Amino acid sequence: GIGCHIWNIELATKVAALLKNIRPDISLILGGPEISHETEEQEIFRYADHVICGEGEIAFPKLCHALLNRRKLRACVQLPVDTPCTAAGSAATVPQAARLPEATGFNPYQEVHQTRRKNLPHWTQDDCTYFVTFRLADSIPQSRIKEYEELRRKWEEHHHPPYSEKERERFNELFSERVNEWLDEGAGSCCLKNPELAAHVAETLQHFDGERYELDEWVVMPNHVHVLVKPLPGFGLPAILHTWKSYSAHAINQALNRKGQLWQKESYDHIVRDMDELNRIRNYIRRNPEKARFRVDFAGSRRAACDTKAAEPAAIQTVPQAARLPSGADVPQAARLLHAAPVDVAQIELPYDLYSDEDIAHRAIYVEASRGCPFRCEYCMSSLDPTVRYFPEEKLFPAFEKLLGRGVRSFKFVDRTFNIDIAFALKMLTFFRERYEPGMMLHFEVIPDHLPDGLMDAVKQCPPGMLQFEVGIQTFNVAVAHRIQRPLDTEKIEANMRRLREETGVHIHSDLIAGLPGEDLESFESGFNRLLALNPQEIQLGILKRLRGAPIDRHSKDWKMVYSPHAPYEILQTNLIPFEQMQRISRFARYWDLTVNNGQFIHAAPLIWRDAPSPFAAFMEWSDWLYAKTNTTGNLHMVRLAKLLMEFLSDEKGLNEKTVADALWRDYQRGNRPDVPGFLKRFGFEQGRQDAGDTTVPPTSSRLSRQSRHQTDL
After folding, report:
1. Which residues in 344-383 are b (16+ Cβ under 10 Å) and which e?
2. Is the pLDDT assigned to residue 311 strictly greater than 60?
3. How many CA atoms lie within 13 A of 492 on its CB side?
4. How far is CA 12 from CA 8, 33, 95, 143, 573, in A?
5. What are the C-alpha distances in Å from 123 to residues 162, 186, 238, 281, 289?
6. Which of 55, 90, 205, 535 is 20 to 30 A away from residue 577, measured at CA?
7. Of 371, 422, 406, 337, nearest in space to 59 by CA
8. Is 553 exposed, middle or buried (0-12, 13-18, 19+ CB in 10 A)?
């Protein structure tokens, strides 16, 4: 099982590919927000046996139990009668894993039989899945056939049976793919465009499904048929093909009141080697009508029984092959996509005992008190889950008590709306305040315009530094906020932000998003300046991301929004912010983190925008200068950055060198460093000197707050 997120999807795809190459018998199950939407368009889907879309706590164990029970059942059924079915069976006598529906059955260590029927070479092996194509006799023009025969003649001059695996693959590339392209051109009578005639083929294919063979993906095109099929023991592929073609030809000729050859006598067949190839062929068959620009009336899929997409052809939805599998398990064996409904969180066993001592000592501890969000902000995945579900208090608080007893002091709550239920929020604050010890820190995401007096009073009672509030502003542009369905009461937000800053000891982490539909650089600059005036400890400048499934994509056409094709899918440009300007904002955000958010320059950084009419424009000047000077947004450790700040503020901005040096020296000493940096020595600072005035200003950055920025985007 692999959980897929925007932050790990590239690595997860590599891991999935390696797993299926090394151990194709392993059942690979994917889940998580990234794979839950636009599922079949993603590369990692090629390697998946099953995908759980949505919340997986209930669906995942059900699926695992079903797969394991079915594997045991098949092991018992397929062994010889006199062979005991035990877990100790040897690999040589229990090859059942290859017979699972989501495996191809091909065994690279067994012999592949090579034969020639009429003109084409054919390869067979027991228990294999085959990709079969058979076509109407007039489906390829004579000119194409002559071209084909000439290519075959030249190929056979240099290749002689028995053919190697590489030769078989090369043959497939040269000839079968070329023939498929010719078939998609729609030559010949294309009588299977007629739904009544195509129905005869579909009925014939399905007639012995589950008795003589197992169908996978199939489609009836206007002049040819593609089928993925696995013959069952006792039935050979040639006999199956003969039955399909003879029965359907008889019915179609009778319907047309004609006689003679309907199908080309010889068919193309190919052994499916592995799951990667199986998924490629499945996708090819499923997309063949769209690729060839033909409408088809008959197609089928083992996945159809669990595929809920309304856009699928009706014929696909009426071919429930999965229902013919053993019915003892809760999850259909042939299911590729499982759409899991939001779970009842009361059923979930809390996972916090799984945090190790090493986790507690060195990592941020993530916890969850509720799920869902009542708001519909279109850039956010939580907009898809409007119901807020709270975990039972009788489970939650004992679990937190246990974590506290194990030494946890920093809790990162991933709830989207901590303060939507004020009564619950008050219980949470009371619980932790009564157990407060120095070093305790709780991170909550709060709604900035919903901080009534009762909650504000409870917050005031918490010791300074105990609470970190992530306050999502995103934009101060009311029209933009309305466009993305984000409620925005700017007056109340500003009043609450001031109260938090002036009356409480809360550390405020606030967010803005660049690239929202309809917001230009001037509007974004105005919003930044407005937020900075509220004096939060941190401002995260996020670049809009097109999270899969998020409704923000509906604005892409109207506002010419172009996103990166690579995770995390950040916006590259809009019709109001060109690519070059978006890159400047992106660098601005990175340098703001390095210079301001990390808390290393709380005295020197404000000098950048001191007395400037627009702090945003002033910091953008520093950002542009810094990038021109270093050509990087990384590898800028504190001393190097301090030296660059010294140069910029004194040489470019014309500030007094001693004033700048004094600010940098106080910032440097806040890290309890006894030495004097070389570029500051000429100002006469003494080693070991501490500035007592700095002790009341805590650093504003931590590992936890940096991770919270990632969580905000997720």
Report:
1. ebeebebebeebeeeeeeeebbbbbbbbbbebebbbbbbb
2. no
3. 10
4. 6, 13, 29, 47, 28
5. 10, 28, 11, 18, 28
6. 535
7. 337
8. middle
Q: How far apart are CA 276 and CA 467, in angstroms?
A: 49
Give the start-end residues of each E strand in 94-142. Answer: 113-117, 120-124, 130-135
* CA-derived radius of gyration, the chain: 33
541-571: pLDDT as tens digits: 999 999 998 999 999 999 999 999 999 999 9
Distance CA 90, CA 208 (A): 33
Question: Which DSSP string do the residues of 625-676 spell out, in sequence order?
Answer: HHHHHHS-SS---HHHHHHHHHHIIIIIS---HHHHHHHHHHHHHTTT--S-
Residue 41 has pLDDT above 90, yes or no: no
The burial class, CB within 10 Å (0-12 / 13-18 / 19+), for 34 is buried
Which pLDDT belongs to residue 305? 33
Neighbours of 122 (CB within 10 A): 19
Place of tokens 């918490």: 462
Query: CB–CB of 100/302 below 8 Å?
Result: no
Residue-wise pLDDT for 79-106, tens only, equals: 333 333 232 332 223 233 333 334 565 5
Which residues on neighbouring strands pair with residue 676, listed in sequence order? none
Give the C-alpha separation, 690 to 154, whole Å: 85
Which segments of 79-171 does DSSP mark as H helices, in order? 142-158, 165-171
Asked if the peptide bond before residue 448 counts as cis, ω within 30 degrees of 0, the response is no
Residue 695, Cβ density class (10 Å: 0-12 exposed, 13-18 middle, ≥19 buried): exposed
For the chain, how far is it from start to end, CA to CA, in angstroms? 20
Sign of CA dihedral 179, 181, 182, 184: positive
Which is nearest to 514 in space by CA: 445, 595, 565, 587? 587
Measured CA to CA, the distance from residue 397 to residue 435 in angstroms comes to 12
DSSP state of 485: T
Report yes or no: 605 and 582 within 8 Å, Cβ to Cβ. Answer: no
Give residue 457's pLDDT.
95
pLDDT in tens, 212-259: 899 999 999 988 899 999 998 878 888 899 889 988 999 999 889 888
Rounded CA separation 626/632 (Å): 8
Enter the tokens of residue 208: 């012995």
Q: Which residues contact 357 (CB under 8 A, 6 or more apart)?
A: 406
- Token pair for residue 19? 């797993």
Query: Coil, strand, or helix at residue 335?
Result: coil
Residue 609: pLDDT over 80: yes
pLDDT digits (tens, 9 = 90+) for 399-438: 999 999 999 999 999 998 899 999 999 999 999 999 999 9
pLDDT (tens digit, 9 = 90+) per residue, 682-705?
887 776 554 434 433 333 334 344
Tokens standing for 364? 């941020």
Q: Is 230 helix (H, G, I), strand (E, B) or coil?
A: strand
Tokens at 371, concatenated = 């799920």
